[in-house]
Amino acid sequence: MTEIAEKYSGLSDAEVRERRERYGMNVIAEEKRESALKKALKSFSEPVFLLLIGAACLYFFLGEPRDGAVMLVFVAFMGAINIYQEWKTDRTLAALKSLSSPKVTVVRGGEARAVSSEELVPGDIVIISEGERISADGELLENDGFGADESTLTGEADIVWKRCATACESGRGWRADRCYAGTNAVAGRAIVRVTETGGRTEYGKIGAAVAQAPDRPTPLEKQTRRLVRDCSFFSMLMLIFVVAATCYRGGGFIEAALSGVTIAMATIPEEFPVVLTVFLALGAWRLAKRNSLIRRIPSVETLGAVTVLCVDKTGTLTENRMTLKSFTPLCGSSPRKLTEVAVLASETNPYDPMERAILDEASKNRIEIKLLQGQRLLHEFPFSSESRMMCHVWSHRGKIAAAAKGSPESVFPLCGLSEEELEEAELAQRRLAEAGCRVLAVAYNDDMREIPREISACSFKLAGLAAFIDPPRENVAESIRACGSAGVRVVMITGDNSVTAHRLAHEVGLGCGEGEHVMISGEELERMTDCELAERLGDVTIFSRILPREKMRIVKALRSRGEVVAMTGDGVNDAPALKYADIGIAMGGRGTEVAREAADMVLLDDDFSTIVSTIRDGRRIYDNIRKAMEYILVIHIPIALSALAAPLLALPALLLPVHVVLLELIIDPTCSIIFERQPEERDIMERPPRSASAPIITRGLFGKALAQGLAIFAAAFGSYYAALQHGGAEHARTFFLTVLVLANLFLVYVNRSDKDFAFKKGSAAADMIAWLVNIGVLLCLVVMSTLPHAAAATKLSQLSAADFALALLTAACATFWWEAVKWRGRVKERGAILR
């Protein structure tokens, strides 16, 4: 990097600023940002706000300006809460987008630096390496075996090998001396001068319409929208019914209108979309803090439904810390000869950990690496997933010499081994593999007549074997056990041979017996049809000698069996499988930019245990969404039934719009603040994954919400009816609201866990937030019922200490009876464990 920065000074900071002002950001379509006023108007156009504003206008029309003003104050306060939540969500999403934005290496002001791809401007000098996604159009200044996959633009799958730009070259069409935004670097390295950015690139001209296309709603979003739509339709029916019923029994139109607005407000669960948006966005932000960067927010809801986790061996289950265990000379080669050939078969500035280990070993043995690799490199056969080997051809001591290394299965057939030599080599390979080593064969040809077109046409002499060891991560075995308890099957996919894969699987506790259907090799996979593969996948836990392109078939076959698949990958060729999986997981440390772009989630620490923790958090987030929605349903039932029952029974007006607003001010922060912070259930990783097609509001959840809601309604409305017999309407209404508010507070503790006792200690943060919200709600209730002006505006009166105690007891009875149901469930669970 230093040498490049010295050769190309790049643009200065002033030039970058000037060109950004002229050309804009490097994005295909500038994101349209809504103004604060437009967001506020959009928020106040929700049905519940329109009803509230309508009620305020009705009060002004009746000559009650104080009541109208109170309604508008509450409308403004509720709107402020909604706008704050939206602002917080937008800020979280913007932070996540910034974290996941691809980075590029540019030379500016004489130094190389990493910047966001959106910051590129024409004239920038960019260093592009294998595995990166190209972010702008440009001309090649230097080329080191650089090849690009331009299928996204041309539709052709072949690699396009690039050459440096020349002054005389011009013309239309796709040029080999240029690289294009939206394509992928799949081999080598290049230095490029940016010529076009954003919408002026070839990709930008084609993809502007695609970039501006709206995102499709997820199944959970569709469910929520359908639920809100159905409830809104029901609310309008209730409004018409209550207005008609009130007029029929002799009430005035104004009274009927207020009662109708009240019932409509009480039956619109406008909190549902808020809960979904806030919980998923904040959940993704919390995951990012734990090294799991969510690139697509809807994937958070899918995490809890994962049934199969497909993982790479190297770097995910192992530490990706390759060390050379031994060199094994064969066919008469000496240890020094084997080491020298391995050095010549390696890159001069290697990225691969095995090549670095080879050079380190050579240095220890005082082999002149610079002298060996300082010779003229005539040709390079790069490693490919098809050949499974690589070869360097050198001008060595006046001759053409070749040095190769790769999988023994690929190298042995090119070495002309006798039966005895082949048997000796295979036996040595098997022993090393059984010891858990990754084995490479090293071969050479000191006197090559000519350089063939394909590596498969080369002839070599076997120098020996290089054995590497990559120890498993220390917490992998525990994480695999956690997956097993959670009903998530872990499948290891590796390019290593079956012996090495089997050995590691036993070390980390991955279920792998000797049965026929436990392991499938790449050779077996190639012979199978898609149907045969799907049938064989029932208990397979290991795939060995798998090519990256074959991962796609495995994912498709698993999904055809109804599995929800999470797939890890790091290479360019892994991108299709990552895209096709339900959850594509790219490695953040060693993964390519192409893989990260295709993935739903980026693992920042490349650690398997982080994937398991993310599945755990995904289940917790989904559980908390269900709990919040259950709470919303429960608390709306007594509000709606009370608003309906009072006018139908010809009782004094119980709930006015202002009271529903007060209750909404309690419901909103409770469901979006308290429940979002709830810790996980103790058995969250001891139950099978939920069905991906299961509705968010299940029959069981609705039945529980209905039972709890009816109990609270019976207690609160019964108290109101009884209080009417012994006092005025305002006293009865105050008692009713006190019971309802206290029941709401108790309900949070009862429903924050489906199994544990209500007041079992949870996380300190969640408990503190719950107490702060509770104290705030109680203070609000006291202020509204005791301060003369506030009491007059809300039509409430002060309760005596005895009345408050009675309301407290009534609310407790209406909610804590569910603790008996939970206790019975715990007894049954313990009985099942003992049996």
Describe the model.
The structure is a single chain. The chain has 835 residues and is of the alpha/beta class. It contains 32 helices and 21 strands. The strands form 3 sheets. An 8-stranded mixed sheet has the order 8-21-20-19-9-16-18-17, with helices on both faces. Strands 1, 2, 3, 4, 5, 6 and 7 form a 7-stranded antiparallel sheet that branches. A hairpin with a 7-residue loop joins strand 11 and strand 12. The radius of gyration is 34 Å and the shape is elongated.
Question: Strands, helices and their partners?
Answer:
Layout: H1 2-7, H2 13-23, H3 36-44, H4 47-61, H5 65-100, E1 103-108, E2 111-116, E3 125-129, E4 137-149, H6 151-154, E5 159-161, E6 178-179, E7 184-196, H7 202-211, H8 219-248, H9 253-267, H10 271-289, E8 292-294, H11 299-303, E9 308-312, H12 313-317, E10 323-329, H13 335-344, H14 353-364, H15 369-373, E11 376-381, E12 389-396, E13 399-406, H16 408-411, H17 419-434, E14 438-445, E15 461-469, H18 476-485, E16 489-493, H19 498-508, E17 519-521, H20 522-527, H21 530-536, E18 542-544, H22 551-560, E19 565-569, H23 575-580, E20 583-587, H24 593-598, E21 601-603, H25 608-648, H26 657-674, H27 699-726, H28 729-751, H29 764-786, H30 788-794, H31 801-816, H32 818-834
Helix pairs in contact: 4-5, 4-9, 5-10, 5-26, 8-9, 9-25, 10-25, 10-26, 13-14, 21-22, 25-26, 25-27, 25-28, 26-28, 26-29, 27-28, 27-31, 28-29, 28-31, 29-30
